[in-house]
Amino acid sequence: MRTHLARWLAAVALVLAVGALAPRAVLAHASLQKCNIAAGAKLKVMPTTVNCFFAEGVNPKGSFIGIFETTGDHGQDDNQNSQVSFSNAKEMTMTVPKLAKGTYALIWYTISADDGHHAGGWFTFSVV
Q1: CA-based R_g, the chain, Å
Q2: Does domain 2-127 have CATH number 1.10.3720.10?
């Protein structure tokens, strides 16, 4: 299970590195506006689909949202099957498998379709 934790930490490091190297892109471009899972949420029932909306249109090549299990204790540790919506380039969705009780991180990384700038971030939530 340590490999799960290592993968999660590597993904968080990537998002933080992008933010550190390009702070203006993180603040001004295809940044996360809202998501159907809130930061810090304690969910009794996990939605089967995650929908995230961004400030600008998102380039489907290289952009993703993913859910990573934070402790490495659960078998389902990540899912990066996200895609940009066909009807709204500012929306990304992903199907979520059943998640065990625990704390997870929703990580997002975008490349703006408008200007090519990169942005990223993450927040945690729990399934209780």
Answers
A1: 14
A2: no
Quick one: which of 99, 96, 109, 123 has its CA closest to 30? Answer: 109
* Helix (H) / strand (E) containing 9: helix 2-21
Residue type, 126: S
Q: What's the chain's length in residues?
A: 128
* pTM exceeds 0.70 for this model: yes
Beta carbons within 8 Å of 113's beta carbon, 6+ residues apart:
30, 56, 57, 58, 59, 89
39-50 residue pLDDT tens: 999 999 999 999
Give the tens place of pLDDT for each residue, 55-107.
Answer: 999 999 999 999 888 876 544 444 558 899 999 999 999 998 888 999 999 99
Rounded CA separation 57/124 (Å)? 24
How far does CA 81 lie from the centroid of its chain? 11
